[in-house]
Structure prediction request, 243 residues.
Amino acid sequence: MRRSIIHRSDTGLEYQGLTMHVPPGVHQGVFDLLTAHLPPPARVLDLAAGSGAFTRRLLDAGYQVDAADIDLGDWSLQGVPVAQVDCNGPSWDLPVEAFEAIVAIEVIEHLENPTQFMRTAGRHLRPGGVLVFTTPNVVSLQSRRKMLLSGEFAFFGRGLLFEAGHRTPLPFWLLEDLLSSEGYDITERRFLGEQGFILRAGRPIWKSLFVPLLDLLFTLVGRRIPAEANLTTTVGYLARKPK
Prediction:
């Protein structure tokens, strides 16, 4: 079976008419993270670019952008070329040490070998360049509840390999160890995307009463987990390749 990155198709989010295949707030959060550390007109590679929504956002801000994806069927950004790249591959048909930033939004959880991805990305970054990426936050309160009840992380579970392409859950602490092992300097970590509040219309009464108490318990005993991780869908990193 052909390996692929399967995009979300039902978010209802758009940027200038281009579908955003991410949870709410993630594109803006990544854009803010990148611009805080690398202003335009830097050259950026947008990996798994999907419809081109984030590429368009970067172009609008004045960045030089190269776009790539394994499946080009969703590409909708007219007049902008996109290269076909399999992020699972040990090498990419792209210029070496050419980019000041590589952006991979909601990509690494789809891959067979996240460490190899970090290593390959490093070959295409200029010295001092940055790797910016996000992945589902599997240490949120929602995820810890799901793990307790079903043995599965939020955004990962039976069937999601085939429905969403999610194969590799990566907690923040493991990502940091992997980045360090590959020689990156972690510049900033941000938790992005707010999760829905548990007390909402349609919730059974028992959940409305029980879940907040369980979340409070998780918060009290999970002191090694950053507080900002509790109610967010996504974790993002900006890590720098040494000069």
User: Anything to note?
Assistant: The chain has one domain: 14-140+150-197+228-240. The chain is about 30% helix and 25% strand.
